[in-house]
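Progress against Task 2.4 (sequence-to-structure conversion) is shown through the following example record, which the project officer requested during the mid-term review.
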Amino acid sequence: MLGKIRPAVHSLIDLIRSETPIHVHRLLTTGAGRTFLGFLLLYLLLIQLCRHAFYRDPTSAFFDASRAYDHVYSRQRQQQADDFIKAANSSASQYPHGDPHPTMCLGIATVERSGEQYVRPAFGSLMEGLMEDERKHIFTVVLIGHTDPQQHPIYNETWLENTADKVLTYDTSNATQFDLLVKWEKDKDYRRKAIFDYTYLLETCIHTEAAWIAMIEDDTLAVKGWYTHAMAALDVADSKSTNWLYLRLFFTEQFFGWNSEFWPTYLLSSISIVTTVAVLLLALRRLRYPTSISNAAILSACFIYTPACILLYFLAGKVSMRPIPTGVHEMPNYGCCAQGMVFSSPVAAKVVDKLKEKESGFVDMILEEWANQEKLTRFAVVPSLLQHIGGHSSKGDDFSSAQPMSVAETIFNFGFELYEQRGERVVHPSTNG
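Structure tokens generated for the chain above:
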């Protein structure tokens, strides 16, 4: 790292010497000049450290997409999920199922994807690692989101029959509704069909009389031990509020930056820091160093060094500089998206009514609008218990020629990948919000 800094500093000095040798001599021989060069060297070193430390922070100027999206933990977790599905594909396999009256109903709607069927590792990661007693408390419902279920490659796969409690298909006896579904499929009316699928799955889960309903998208991966942590987090959410909408199991950090609506706060904080530095230096000069601290030194500290440090602080990224502590926290804004949410059963019934009222749109946007209107609290588990692994959106309109990655690929939780490979990091939901 120092090898990269030294040439830059030497080049800067050589350039200055070639242009203004007298000024360079003063710069190198005066106290102020040596202070400036020392600060410059330290600043360049800090920039290199930031490049190394904050490349995973999407809110940072040092974010490096070529490295940040590396599936460090997901790769390990997907292998465990794939092994589970592979074992469950054996017709001789025996797996426990959920009780008729479960604690949680787990709903997954899935449609055929081009290429990899993400639902396999998604379901596998949710099941792999569960204790037998935990599995009994979960009733799993997998909705095959095609009017012809045979269209989905997993429909006749053995693992689905062996592990899912209910494989849900559309009700063909309701001819009017079924014809609409056929039309939406043909017209690629994803917004209407997605709302129908979500409500259909929610209603099915409500009928199980489970206390909690988890709605998980089919292109996610769950951390090992997700159920224990989710249940603990739900207890915390209940203790914090009686008027909450959902517990978010997934969020992406990319919208948690220094958002412009808070610029007055950032400006005032910066001014306060500069003022504090000025007051401290003036106090030191008055009380202890009356001849050592000049006006020029104070001006340099207040208008060069301190602003430069403040600038680097903001460039480092909000997620890194002000990380959300581990635990359960309110997340009314910027969380995105609907990859994983848990509702209480009474709230789930209200969600069904709200979505049926809207008929068309995106589930997460409808819920956020409703929560804002009704002032409903929204919680999230930090770090995320799910990762989004889909590279192709099931809703279309996914790729942009100007971007090297699909839109779906950028919906990512960077903190999830920090679950340790040497042993999964334990998540302890706390009451600190």
